[in-house]
Write a structure and sequence with these properties.
Leucine-rich repeat-containing G-protein coupled receptor 4, leucine-rich repeat, 17 strands, elongated, Leucine-rich repeat, LRR (right-handed beta-alpha superhelix), 233 residues, mainly beta
């Protein structure tokens, strides 16, 4: 659906829908119908410049084939994960360049996720352990958010994570003491205000690609921590 003034669409309960993909562009749609589960064969939802402000995952619950939700350049300011959410095939949640002020509560309910892209939003604080339970997560992108603080109140356990990006945030400190990310290959912290990364030495696998460009690094710290790391500008 392209460039329409429709603010809703209706699904008929007696119709057996064969729809596999929904693409919404320049639409006034503010919410998904509560009976989206009728689209049993749906595997892809994409949107671009849609009026949607709240992405209510419970309205999508039961679409067992849904694999990808990709809605860039939108107005989404919250993602609701209240109650039970049955999306066993959802691997990609990509919401770059929206208006999210925080990472949604209940992310662990989307247990099949492999890719999360929340870049270019308005997130200022992150509790890293909020992603615990996402055992298949391979890529997490929070770049270009006004992040000033990353906390780890509990041990961060993401056994499949390979790529993590905090590029061009506002970080002036980062402590990875409680991060257990044994498969991580790339950590991008370029474009911040970091002097060092606390407790980095020996924390990750040997050969980690660490993107360090445009920071305020302590040169002695960089030299002391280079063993086992591959620095990238």
């Amino acid at each position: 659906l392209f460039s329409t003034n429709y603010d809703q669409f209706v699904l008929e309960p007696n119709v057996e829908y064969q729809l596999e993909k929904i693409s919404l562009y320049d639409m006034q749609l503010e919410e998904f119908p509560k009976d989206m589960h009728l689209l049993r064969k749906l595997n892809l939802i994409t949107g671009h410049r849609v009026a949607l402000k709240t992405l209510d995952m419970s309205s999508l619950s039961g679409i067992t084939n849904l694999k990808i939700i990709k809605v860039p350049e939108g107005n989404i300011s919250s993602v609701r994960l209240s109650g039970s959410v049955n999306l066993p095939s959802l691997t990609n949640l990509e919401l770059p360049n929206n208006k999210l002020g925080e990472v949604p509560d209940g992310m662990h309910k989307l247990s099949a996720l492999e890719v999360i892209d929340l870049s270019l939003n308005r997130i200022t604080f992150l509790e890293m352990s909020c992603f615990n339970g996402l055992e298949h997560l391979q890529k997490l992108d929070l770049s270009y958010n006004p992040l000033t603080r990353i906390s780890s109140l509990a041990t961060v356990k993401l056994p499949s994570l390979e790529t993590l990006s905090f590029m061009a945030c506002h970080l002036d400190q980062l402590n990875v003491l409680h991060w257990e990310l044994s498969t991580m290959k790339v950590l991008n912290v370029g474009g911040n205000n970091l002097h060092q990364i606390e407790n980095l030495q020996g924390r990750f696998r040997e050969g980690l690609e660490l993107h360090v460009g445009i920071n305020n690094w302590d040169c002695q710290w960089l030299e002391e921590n280079k063993i086992g790391l591959l620095y990238k500008g």
